[in-house]
Amino acid sequence: MVRDLIFIYDYICPYCYLMFREVREIERKKDVRVFWVPVELFPQTPSEGVLLEKAIGIRQKNKIEKKVSMLAKKQEIPYYQPSILYNTHLAMLLTDFVSIQTNGERTAEVIEELFNRVFVYNENIGDWNILYKVCMNLALDFERFREAAAQPHLQNVNAEWKKQYAKKDMGALPAFLIETNITLQGLYMHEELENFIK
């Protein structure tokens, strides 16, 4: 029996960046179907972004950098904490657009590219120029995406799961829904996630 794992994340969340690879491991299993649900932790962030320390405080910024740097090194993945907190609305729409266009086939590929733009290259994924580069790099139709982004139906993709996340008032990411009745939050190795799914 195939079970559903709903991974709720934001592109500016470094813990979500770490968990992405763990969830990809889960997705490779034949009995698990992953649904990728991007949300916005800071929807009020302007498109040019704000200083990270201004948004979350210098102490919290340093604490996250230390912890995530250590975990990323352990996982052998690159991590460079951005100094700017970016607006992720357009990146969320690009993810949903690709999910619709490819029936989910290329969603993880786009997610990985967007996470890398933030935590490897420290680029502003709230900027159309950066999203153009993402589309060119992945051979996606940028103009078609730009047209779709202006349509209200794209805002409603994953609306039900986003509603469930908001209803549970969790407030932090990453978060997981398993078959819509088990809710998890935080960092897990893929073996731990597998145990929850079984």
Put the structure in a nutshell.
This protein is of the alpha+beta class and 198 residues long.
Describe the SSE topology.
Elements: E1 3-9, H1 14-27, E2 32-38, E3 50-51, H2 52-56, H3 58-75, E4 84-85, H4 89-101, H5 107-119, H6 128-137, H7 142-149, H8 152-155, H9 159-167, E5 175-178, E6 182-185, H10 190-197
Parallel strand pairs: 1-2
Antiparallel strand pairs: 1-5, 3-4, 5-6
Helix pairs in contact: 1-5, 1-10, 4-5
Describe this structure in words.
The chain is an alpha+beta fold and 198 residues long. The protein has one domain (3-197): Glutaredoxin, CATH 3.40.30. 52% of the residues lie in helices and 13% in strands. The chain has helices at 14-27, 52-56, 58-75, 89-101, 107-119, 128-137, 142-149, 152-155, 159-167, 190-197, and strands at 3-9, 32-38, 50-51, 84-85, 175-178, 182-185. The strands form two sheets. Strands 2-1-5-6 form a four-stranded mixed sheet, sandwiched between helices. It has a two-stranded antiparallel sheet with strand order 3-4. The longest helix has 18 residues, at 58-75. The chain starts with a strand and ends with a helix. The model has no long low-confidence stretch (mean pLDDT 90).
The CATH architecture would be 3-Layer(aba) Sandwich
What separation lies between the terminal Cα atoms?
Answer: 10 Å
Q: Count of helices?
A: 10
Main β-sheet, in a few words? 4 strands, mixed
Structural class: alpha+beta
Q: SSE order in H/E notation?
A: EHEEHHEHHHHHHEEH
Amount of beta strand:
5-15%
Q: Quick one: CATH class?
A: Alpha Beta
CATH superfamily: Glutaredoxin
User: What is the helix fraction of residues, given as a range?
Assistant: 40-55%
Shape: globular
C-alpha-based Rg, rounded: 16 Å
Q: How many strands?
A: 6
**Average predicted local confidence, pLDDT:** 90
Instruction: Supply the number of structural domains.
Output: 1
* Poorly predicted sequence stretches spanning 5 or more consecutive residues: none
